[in-house]
Amino acid sequence: MATLRFKALNTLNSRAKVQVDIPSAKVSEFFGEDSFGMKQMLSALAPAVYKKVSEAIKNHEKIDPETADSVASAAKSWAMSKGATHFTHWFQPLTGGTAEKHDSFFDPISGIEKFKGSELVQQEPDASSFPSGGIRSTFEARGYTAWDPTSDMFIYGKTLCIPTVFVSYTGETLDTKSPLLKALKAVDKAATSVCQFFDKDVNKVVAFLGCEQEYFVVDRALFMARPDLVMTGRSVFGHAPARGQQLDDHYFGAIPTRVYKFMKDFEIESWKLGIPLRTRHNEVAPSQFEVAPLFEEVNAANDHNQLLMDVMNRVSERHNLKVLFHEKPFAGLNGSGKHNNWSLITNTGVNLFAPSSTAKDNLLFLTFFVTAIKAIHEYADLVMASIASAGNDFRLGANEAPPAIMSAFIGKQMNDVLDELEKNGNVKIEKGDNMYMKLGIDQIPEIILDATDRNRTSPFAFTGNKFEFRAVGSSDNSATPMTVLNLIMADQLLDFHTAVSKEIEKGVEKRMAIVGVLRKYIKESKSIRFEGDGYSEGWVKEAEKRGLSNIKNMPRAIEPFLSKKSIELFERHSIFNKKEIEARNEIKLEGYIKKVQIEARIMCDLATNHIVPTAISYQNKLITNANGLKGLGIDNTGVVATIKEISGYIDSIKENVTKMTDERRRINKISETDKRAFGYCDDIREKYFSKIRRAVDKLELLVDDEDWPLVKYRELLFLR
Ligand code: ADP
Ligand code: MG
First-to-last CA distance in the chain? Predict the structure, then answer.
């Protein structure tokens, strides 16, 4: 094994430079050239057809068969002119990642290339091996994919990819996109009705998302020489390097050349696909980086994020690099997240989370702002459930990412505004009085614009004109957190609308009715507001006093999905029925069990077959040495002590590996999925992982570097 490590290091040292094809054209000239969206349809379709398509998309309506035929024909001509030979429905099953099944345009029966509207609109992939959480038994779990015209088609390789939803024949959703689309529709409807209190011209509200994506990059040969990274995406062993991130010198430092080339390369590919990448920089940990696009409509932004991860994976191969999206690839160093920047914007161009320069519009802003905080307060546990994953468990609350406690940071200025509103809400408005001034909300923009206070320790932070949900894991699909966030917002907005309407019916002046409900919300949601250090021990205690949950493991963190309150919420808006929620949780738990199982196996395998034999053979060398010293009459206590120390760690590994394996056998027999998941969480992961790891990492420090079989952290993180 040590040979594998040194071979990998040799490969790294003799790497030839990779050339990147940088187009001579400006980005604006090739941006989106491989995507087929509204712009391309405008030039490819007859005006009447284009009008039908764009109307249907705008109003979430069905596209009729003739129109679909025209779109299919135009898409086929466009794709073939770019060398595409196949098409596929591209969807996001519950396993995570994306799925596709390719069909050729060429039809062997007629001998020509064909692509019918019906093939664009609907396909029937063999769905039997995608998880359905027991909704239907596997052999009959047939589903179909249906075109999502709100996300652009694109060419990937030689294939035209068509974004689709994935549903079963009985109508249950089997993917992450269907519920997201429904939640976006719900928030549009609810937000529009609330906006109507202020402005009759608002007839649509769109949710926007900008995903900041964090990731690690390591050399491919070194990656391949670490079976744990290959199998699980994270290192189960590895002693912290002498130099970690304590110097803080990586953050915003110069990007290393090899990685820089890789970034350029995947940026170009992404731009061609219409992914609006904007920002790149180093992150806190060595070899950790971030890429961020310009925000887009949530659905498109999320599809683009999923596609981006795929592009990055594929492009990294060309550079002999490997990109790691795992939430915690390296112990002791920062993990990676996918910060979801979220806002709601009206068809009239108003960002509802942006304070305005007029007092009247500030009441609109406050309505959405306070309602968002109230929604988070109301459904804090569900929001945390939406981002729970096996990988994220390692990251949350590890003094580098927000804790597993939900809270909202709004900044001192907004706190003052809310406090003021809460206190002074009972103002009497005399004739000619400026109500807004009395309420202290006439001057929000001035104070907010220079209010640059940031809080990196909060899971949900207001950043001036948007909320940043920072708890999402780096490998996750943002569809689920975005479904929950937009849905709870929709629900709270409807509640707001009802409450205000009731007051108005009673004869209360509209603005005062609005202020009245907002004051109530501010009072009720206070406990979710926290401005301090989210990483501190003090906050954990304080949060407990406030009654906020702090659930640190995924099998329990997803339970709030099954609460009566959540089920009613999902059913009220026709997102999921109870059966679907249960099925989804079941799939998540199964996934969790498998992940921990694989990690446990790889740990046993590496410890038993690689680490222990290496330690024993090194120990034998020491024994020879100790005997030699003794023969010469030289004091050998130092060597003997090391021999004993090594024995201790070997014994500890053997004992814990055996116990963990026995424990797994016991847990595997448990029939209830949730109990099995709890078992894997409490009795495998919590109980044995760190014990085994500690012994292995100690041996790494004792055993001769020449003999050590696993590529070390310092090599993975600092050598390029
Ligand atoms: P930061 O300083 O937190 O990195 P940025 O301004 O760079 O903030 O924004 C980060 C992400 O937020 C980007 O993807 C950006 O496009 C997105 N973003 C900016 N404004 C909005 C908005 N109104 N709605 C949603 N996302 C937004
Ligand atoms: Mg940010």
Answer: 21
Choose which CATH entry (3.40.190.150, 1.20.1260.100, 1.20.120.1560, 1.10.287.70) describes domain 586-718: 1.20.120.1560
User: What region does 332 belong to: left with phi over 0, alpha with psi -120 to 50, or beta?
Assistant: left
pLDDT of 426 reads 64
In short, whether 292's Cβ falls inside 6 Å of ligand 1 is yes
Provide the pLDDT for residue 432.
64
For tokens 């990492």, the residue is 697
**What is d(CA 544, CA 551) in angstroms, rounded to the nearest whole number?**
11
For ligand 2, the distance from its centroid to the CA atom of residue 390, given in whole angstroms, is 24
Low-confidence ranges of the chain (pLDDT < 50): 136-140
Q: Report how far ligand 2's centroid is from the alpha carbon of 337 (Å).
A: 11
Q: Report d(CA 22, CA 10) in Å as an integer.
A: 29
**Between the CA atoms of 276, 279, 282 and 285, what dihedral angle is there, to the nearest 10 degrees?**
-60
In the chain, where the domains are located: 31-175, 184-576, 586-718
**CB neighbour list of residue 537: distance below 8 Å, 6 or more residues apart:** none
Contact by Cβ (8 Å): 102, 159: yes
To test the pocket of ligand 1, the residue of 295, 298, 343, 351 to mutate (highest count of ligand atoms within 8 Å of its CB) is 295
In short, whether 351's Cβ falls inside 6 Å of ligand 1 is yes
pTM, full prediction:
0.95
For the segment(s) 184-576, the CATH number from 1.10.1670.40, 3.30.70.20, 2.60.120.970, 3.30.590.10 is: 3.30.590.10
**Neighbouring C-beta atoms of residue 211, cutoff 10 Å:** 27
Q: Is the CB of 291 under 6 A from ligand 1?
A: no
Cα 225 from chain centroid? Answer: 27
CB-side exposure of 624: number of CA atoms within 13 Å? 6
Question: What is the dotted CATH code of the domain comprising 31-175?
Answer: 3.10.20.70
Instruction: Identify the pLDDT of residue 139.
Output: 35
DSSP 181-198: HHHHHHHHHHHHHHHTTT
Looking at residue 427, its pLDDT comes to 61
